[in-house]
Design a protein that fits this description.
mainly alpha, two-stranded parallel sheet, 55% helix, FA_desaturase_dom
Length: 321
């Protein structure tokens, strides 16, 4: 089973999350960053082109053998679908059309959701905004592994399995830790998605639908682009709970690697986050950062000091210690 992790509990802290206070300090020194706030007018065209590319790919993969379909799902379709998940992430912050046109953002979210295969754009927004506001909260922040996950996957092999199973933890963990009743928009999202899935199966075939679903699942697990799930908030350096990555995979992930910058300034679209770093470089260049998402996956599995326990947690307000 491999070496057991050296931690037996999460990193409990009793301070506020660091981003709101750092945002205030940075804006006092660099008020020009406010000019970067707002939506990215080019975003909708980039995201739309990615959706169209995946739909066209369905007509190619329908006649492929299963081995070649799996290769294409891992090396191409999964990457596009993961990028579309991160497009949904941008949309959850209303960065496609701005805060003044919320329904335009939601509709684009429905469209970007289509190739992913599972309805998630509205549910993601509901939980993700809480992750920003209550980072590390033991109940509200569902990005943090459960105690059961940390205890079950506490060896080298266990962590390898956990990485492979990440998509299922991301899907089901919020429903267990912090369940919420479905909203009207979530129901609409589900109806639209199931209608699209049925149309793909009816007009193109099951193999094309499998390509979409398999690609989404594979690219959320043991895959280089999925390294950002772990790189963002797992504690690789004591005392630091958010990490940035400035490598080339940002080009296909809407700069989600600029994660400290994103949490400090969620109103800045991904395309402008490098400018935040350039302006306030003394705040970001001195913090620990990752140079490779693939290396993050390797270190997470092999380093006994890192694992599901390596997360900063805070007691939920109002709960006894």
């Amino acid at each position: 089973m491999g070496q057991k992790v050296s931690r037996n509990d999460f990193e409990w802290v009793y301070t506020e999350e660091p981003h709101a206070s750092r945002r205030k300090i940075i804006l006092e020194k660099y008020p020009q960053i406010k000019k970067l706030f707002g939506h990215d007018p080019n975003f909708k065209w980039i995201a739309g082109a990615m959706v169209l590319t995946q739909i066209l790919a369905l007509f190619i993969v329908k006649d492929l053998s299963w081995p070649w379909l799996l290769v294409l799902a891992y090396c191409f379709g999964g990457i596009l679908n993961h990028s579309l998940m991160l497009a949904v992430h941008e949309i959850s912050h209303n960065l496609a059309f701005g805060h003044s046109r919320p329904m335009h953002n939601r509709i684009l979210g429905f469209i970007c959701n289509l190739p992913i295969g599972l309805p998630m754009s509205i549910s993601f927004k509901k939980y993700h905004l809480e992750h920003h506001r209550y980072q590390g909260d033991e109940v509200i922040d569902t990005d943090i592994p459960t105690l059961l996950e940390a205890r079950l996957f506490d060896t080298t092999f266990g962590k390898f399995l956990w990485v492979c199973l990440q998509p299922f933890f991301y899907i089901f963990r919020p429903l267990v830790v912090n369940p919420k009743p479905p909203t009207r928009l979530e129901i609409i999202n589900t109806i639209i998605q199931l209608t699209f899935n049925a149309a793909v199966v009816y007009f193109i075939g099951w193999k094309s639908m499998a390509y979409l679903l398999i690609g989404s699942i594979l690219a959320m697990g043991l895959h280089p682009v999925a390294g950002h799930f772990i790189s963002e908030h797992y504690m690789f350096a004591k005392g630091f709970e958010t990490y940035s990555y400035y490598g080339p995979l940002n080009w296909i992930t809407f700069n989600v690697g600029y994660h400290n910058e994103h949490h400090d300034f969620p109103a800045v679209p991904g395309s402008r986050l490098p400018e935040v770093k350039r302006i306030a470089k003394e705040f970001y260049e001195t913090m620990p950062q990752h140079t490779s998402w693939t290396r993050v996956l390797y270190d997470f599995v092999m380093d006994p000091a890192v694992g599901p326990y390596a997360r900063v947690k805070r007691r939920q307000r109002g709960l006894a210690s």
